[in-house]
Amino acid sequence: MPHKQAVIPLLDRLDPLATRIGAVNTIVREPDGSLSGYNTDAGGFLEPLRPVLAKEHLFRMARVLGTGGAARAIIAALAQEHVVIVLAGRDPEKARALLDELDPKGEHHVAPLAHFAEPTDFEFDDRAGCFDLVVNASPLGMAGQPPLEFDFSHVPPGSIIYDIVTHPVETPLLKAASAAGYRTVDGLSMLIGQAAVAFERFFAQAPPRQYDAELRELLTS
After folding, report:
1. Which of 6, 189, 193, 209 would bridge 47 by S-S if both were Cys, CB 3.0 to 4.6 A apart?
2. Following CA atoms 99, 101, 107, 111 in sequence, which dihedral angle do they give, to the nearest 10 degrees?
3. Looking at the structure, do residues 99 and 129 belong to the same domain, yes or no?
4. Helix, strand, coil proportions of the chain in percent (round to 5)?
5. Could you give the residue numbers annotated as active site?
6. What range does the domain containing 32 cover?
């Protein structure tokens, strides 16, 4: 996890997406012995959202919480799907720099992370035909980490709540979202999705996705 950027100078070639994200999580030894670096996090993140993103929307917005390494791939992935991003971090200047680096032409916004911890009386407009997403891209809520302070008054009706934390799989954020009636996506969805992309890189064939349920059981046992 902490070496996705440090490994780049040791590689012979970078995939264009990995270059754009500035991070590598999959390394393939080519037939000539050279090393190629890829980033499968973006594809893995988008996989469970593809059925929804395949539809047409009047507007697409995502509130992304966190500005660490995982956020880089998520921002790049959402930007290519024409999603307007509100990026929240402890340091708004860092958040703005990240958006300017990864999607300089995008009309994105930043907010302090603490903004989403406090209730709001903002009245959302009619969200019919819109795509709304909330993503926890931080380690907050992970076992051994502080909780994510988040108030659901910031969530538009019909939103999808996505938490990339994998331990626990059902985080406090996802539990609260389910109880409030929102659709949820857990971190294993991204983990298995990015592994599927990596599998194709390693073996030049599609992975056996019929075993996804068994794989989930193994990962949570």
Report:
1. 193
2. 20
3. yes
4. 40, 20, 40
5. 4
6. 8-40+190-220
Neighbouring CB atoms inside 10 A of 176's CB total 16
- Residues in the chain, overall count: 221
Element (H, E) at 193: helix 187-203
Q: Is there a single domain that holds both residue 32 and residue 90?
A: no
Rounded to whole angstroms, the Cα distance separating 77 from 193 reads 13
Regarding whether 205 and 127 lie in a shared domain, the answer is no
**Count of domains observed in the chain:** 2
pLDDT tens sequence across 4-57? 899 999 999 999 999 999 999 999 999 999 999 999 999 999 999 999 999 999
Number of neighbouring beta carbons within 10 Å of residue 110:
20
Q: Which two tokens stand for residue 103?
A: 């999607």
DSSP per-residue string spanning 204-216: SS---GGGHHHHH
In a 3-state reduction of DSSP, which class is residue 165? coil
Q: Answer whether residue 2 is part of any domain.
A: no
141-162 per-position pLDDT tens digit: 999 999 999 999 999 999 999 9
| Whether residue 67 is found in the same domain as residue 153 | yes
Q: Are residues 130 and 32 in the same domain?
A: no
Assigned domain for 195 exists: yes
